[in-house]
Amino acid sequence: MTEQRESPAALAYAPGAVVRQYHDATRLRYDDxxxxxxxxxxxxxxxxxxGQPYGWSRNFCEVIRPAPAGxxxxxxxxxxxxxxxxxFCQHVCRWTKTYTMPCxxxxxxxDGRRKVLVFGDRHWKNREHVSRVRxxxxxxxxxxxxxxx
Length: 149
Hints:
5-stranded antiparallel beta sheet; disordered N terminus; 2 domains
């Protein structure tokens, strides 16, 4: 009776590992995500950098950072309540309204802009469940400071 072992590459696909999925053959455009569950058929449940859950295939992505040893780290969903930055915005019509929106910085682009996940819809209240990915200039962002600091 022979014992079947998974290859070292298959072992890297574990909850907590970070995987990268490329969008084209040039490998310039990609998305990173954290694995939350691995299925026997090669399917991966992941949480993207935007905090949203996705289903990926092991055939179309590669592990860029293995899962940490020991207890798997819980994946925290990005929300308006735990936002790390504020985006300064202006609504201009007959008047000008300046306001901020909670956001998470997802990536720094080569040209200096930031890819951010923004929560809310203009300055309206009770719209924090709406989220969109935007590319903004770095000077429009401010890091949120907590009272503990």
